[in-house]
Amino acid sequence: MKKLQYLVLMTLLVIGCGKDNPTGEIPNEPEQKLSSQKILGDFTFFDEATGKKHNAEIKDNVVTAVIETSFDIKALTATVRISDKATISPDPMQKRDYTNPVIYTITAEDGTKAEYKVIVTKQLPSESNIYRLHFKEVGELHNYHNQNPSLNQPNKNIDIRVKVPSKTDVTKLTSVFEISEGATIHPKAGQTLDYTKPVEYTVTSKDGKKVVKYTVTVVFDDTNESGQKTNSHKLLGDFTFFDEVTGKWRNAEIKDNEVTAVIETPFDIKALTATVRIPDKATISPDPTQKRDYTTPVVYTITAEDGTKVEYKVIVTKRLLSESNIYRLHFKEVGKSRDHYNPHPSLNQHDKNADIRIVVPLTTDVTKLTSVFEISEGATIHPKAGQTLDYTKPVEYTVTSEDGKTVLKYTVTVIFDDLPKLSLSINGEEFRNVPPGGTIVFGVNVLPKHEDIRVSLVTEDGKSSVPLTIQKVDDTNKKIHVKLPDTYLNGIYKLDVRIAENNSAMSYTFVLHGGNPVFHYITSNGGGPKKPNSLLYLAEQFGIFASINRKDFAKHSFFIKKNGEYLPLENARFHTNSTTIILEAPLELPNTSLETGTDFEFVIRYEGKEYTYPLVNNKKEPVKVYIPKPPVVTGVSKTSVTQGETLVIKGSNLFYPHGDLRDGGRDKINHYTAIRSRTPSKELISMIGKEIDAQGNLVLTVPFNFLAETEYKLFIDSNVDSFGEVETPITIKVELPKPTHPTMRIQEAEVYHENSKYFKKQLRVKFNGDISKINIKAIVFPEYQNAKITNFIVYEGSNSIMTGELNFWDYRDVYTRRHTLYVLFEEGGKEYKLYFNAKRGEQND
User: Fold this and answer.
1) I need a surface site. Which of 57, 148, 449, 562 has the fewest CB within 10 A?
2) Record's PROSITE patterns (predicted)?
């Protein structure tokens, strides 16, 4: 019978390796018999909101569960245990609504199916306890508190006393209760009532089956008007038992001068300690913190500071438990890994026979199995736990609760599994530098006949494998020694180990770096997720992933290659705390006739041998290698352009994309190519380009510092500094952007000199029409992300506006650099732009 296994969700990061088998062909696999097993072993619910788990009961093909109120029955997930190589549908790990039965189908390896109906019902709480009570008017310091009321309070009237300061107005007290989940209380909590006489409260459980009455009595505390203890006070406030063996606490009930407590089985009634709360400066005798036998009443005397005394009789009775559950069962002969476990059996087993199934290995002698049980506290089991019995047929056990009121029968059935599922113990780091023909050793959990063991070395992608020679089998330590192939490629591998026709295991991946070096792909220099598409063979620094023996790293050299010509790579080293190898292109222009392209190869030289691989990135895409050449300009997309418009410079070698630069690389490579010219006053101006299109043309934007209505002779300075500035045959004419208003125009614009007598550094703009009905918002610098001038005066009579004195930067750009600006105004709810260049005013204007 198939071994049952837990479903495991695994995510594998796959890095491609070569497809070729480095040592030989894959052997033919023996024909396997497909399993028909489709058993559902366990079904456990999980509630994400509360973090609670709940095991369901499986009988025949029906799965039932009665779950607690806290579980969200409309959004449950579950984990299951099914037969090896079987599958289950739908996925129980997905959130699902179980308000109606859900059908799950288990499909065996041979395709046969079994359906299981899962039925979930909800158990309403049946508790009606008051855990805490205080009054808003006196605060939480004066309160009633009992975390385990049901142990002391069966279904009867219960007295609660709350002490309040002596000056409290008990005719108007507002209650604050903490009661059982889902229960209701009457009168309602939060009402302001008269407590000069006891007040009766009724608490009803959520399922309506349990109703308990509580009588709340308010008594005055032993403090005077100033809050100081009076010397004659000797009131016993609290009496709480503690059991050192279990670490549990239990509050007693105090009524008049009698203290009563009903405690359960875990408490040792013959060795209890207690903590008490008594008035300040009073004493109690004997010492309640000492272990004491409470099988008979114990009398305590409290002595006030003034010597007056009061006696309290403490009466403790033991409450016998009524549960008769089996929480856990396993057999000594097979261990705890093959066990039955259900922490909440009573939720599924309402006074009826319960079935327990335990799966054991095929080789187990079921005629002699010794049981180990974990059952309810104080309960007894028959036959007794620890007996060695014959389980070839089901064995019936009877569990009787401590109080003798609950008796449950359990039928224990033992079923066989196959051989233990094979698992491997491998320390892959020990294999890293093992040379070809060397020996690797790994552990297993089980060893069959030696002749049944088969071991293969498998590439990470599983596309290639080679059988390995078994050199030794260590039965004592359960270890297998195998020989690696006489030659192999460095990389990531797995071991496929088989001990029977239907029992095998695949190891975790491990690294072998003692063979021939392997280049995998080029990456960013930090080994991150960046996918490089190109490489500049000048001053660039980049990373590669390669399987190389670190111990012999210095013996390796690296190149890129094309048409038989090798271009060396420099300063090879491993990136800090990484397996990435960092390489650098030379700082000087290469002396080569090779052209840019995607047909380069990567070459590793090691111990006199050369290993050549395609130059690719981590997506196995060819990497384009740029060989720097002087820029060549053949034309432009248009010779008349508008400021802010895209301009395409046509040609070749205009801009070289690159990644990180090595030390000194910034002196060789810029991040942009500059198209330069000079203004009519011989000032140098530039257009910056950082992008090339698919044809290698340079794409840039005409800036607003190219003066409108002017022709410019163009020069190119590519981002490879060594080529310098090159004159082009291109001349362009730059125009202002067209106005967006249908009629309004700028008639005249003038910026006054910084030495002007009357209008120092001020800008005047005159319009061709009436501006009294338009809203002028700003004068804008489009070149600088729409920086604005908003400080100006409107002269409606002259249809002009005049700014205040410009700051240093604005004056420089308008007067010295002649930047284009535009007036932004609004008319009829719509915005318009009028572009202009201001003429320069004379010094003495």
Assistant:
1) 449
2) PROKAR_LIPOPROTEIN
Contact 718, 673 (CB under 8 A): yes
Looking up residue 754, the CATH number of its domain turns out to be: 2.60.40
754 and 789 share one domain: yes
Is 476 a member of any domain?
A: no
**Final residue of a structural domain among 600, 626, 652:** 626
Query: pLDDT tens across 292-328, in order?
Result: 998 899 999 999 877 788 999 999 988 788 888 888 8
Residue 144 near residue 219 (C-beta atoms within 8 A): no
- On whether the CB atoms of residues 615 and 522 are closer than 8 A, the answer is yes
Distance from C-alpha of 416 to C-alpha of 467, rounded to nearest angstrom: 32
Q: From CA 350, how far away is CA 307, in angstroms rounded?
A: 58
| Bigger pLDDT: 681 vs 734 | 734
355-386 burial, b if ≥16 CB within 10 A, otherwise e? ebebbbbeebebeebebebebbebbebeeebe
| Strand blocks (E) in 537-662 | 541-547, 556-562, 565-568, 570-574, 581-584, 601-606, 609-614, 624-626, 632-636, 640-642, 646-652
Residue that wins the pLDDT comparison between 38 and 785: 38
Adjacent-strand bridge partners of 355? 411
pLDDT for residue 405 is more than 80: yes
As for how many domains the chain has, the answer is 6
Question: What would the mean pLDDT of 554-566 be, rounded to a whole number?
Answer: 96
Cα three-residue angle 337-445-511, rounded to 5 degrees: 125
DSSP 238-273: EEEEEETTTTEEEEPEEETTEEEEEEETTS-TTSBE
Residue 656 has pLDDT above 80, yes or no: yes
Structure confidence by residue, pLDDT tens digits, 744-759:
999 999 999 999 988 9
Share of the chain above pLDDT 70, in %: 89
Are both 407 and 311 inside the same structural domain? no
Domain-embedded: residue 186 = no
Q: Report, in angstroms and rounded to the nearest whole number, the Rg of the chain calculated over CA atoms.
A: 45
Owning domain of residue 49: 32-123
CATH at 705: 2.60.40.10
pLDDT of residue 757: 87
Q: Of 351, 349, 332, 331, which Cα lies nearest the Cα of 340?
A: 331
Helix ranges (DSSP H) in 95-233? 149-152
Residue-averaged pLDDT of the chain? 86
pLDDT of residue 529: 47
> Are 636 and 618 in a shared domain?
no
Tell me the CATH number at 268.
2.60.40.2340
Q: What is the pLDDT of residues 790-838, one digit of tens each?
A: 999 998 788 999 999 999 999 998 998 889 999 999 999 999 999 999 9
Same domain, 682 and 727: yes
Task: Let me know if residue 799 belongs to a domain.
Answer: yes
**Based on the domain organization, do 330 and 259 belong to the same domain?**
no
Each residue's pLDDT tens digit, 481-528: 999 999 999 999 999 999 877 788 999 999 999 999 999 999 876 544
Adjacency order of strands within the sheet including 646-652: 632-636, 646-652, 698-701, 684-692, 673-678, 710-717, 725-735, 640-642
Q: Are residues 534 and 618 in the same domain?
A: yes
Mean pLDDT for the stretch of residues 63-81 = 87
Q: Are residues 541 and 594 in the same domain?
A: yes
Cα–Cα distance for residue pair 436/512, rounded to 1 Å: 9
In the block, residue with structure tokens 């209008």: 759
* CA triple 400-404-407, angle to 5 deg: 40
Q: Do both 711 and 751 map to the same domain?
A: no
Q: Which two tokens stand for residue 63?
A: 């799965």
**Of 123, 145, 174, which residue is a domain's last?**
123
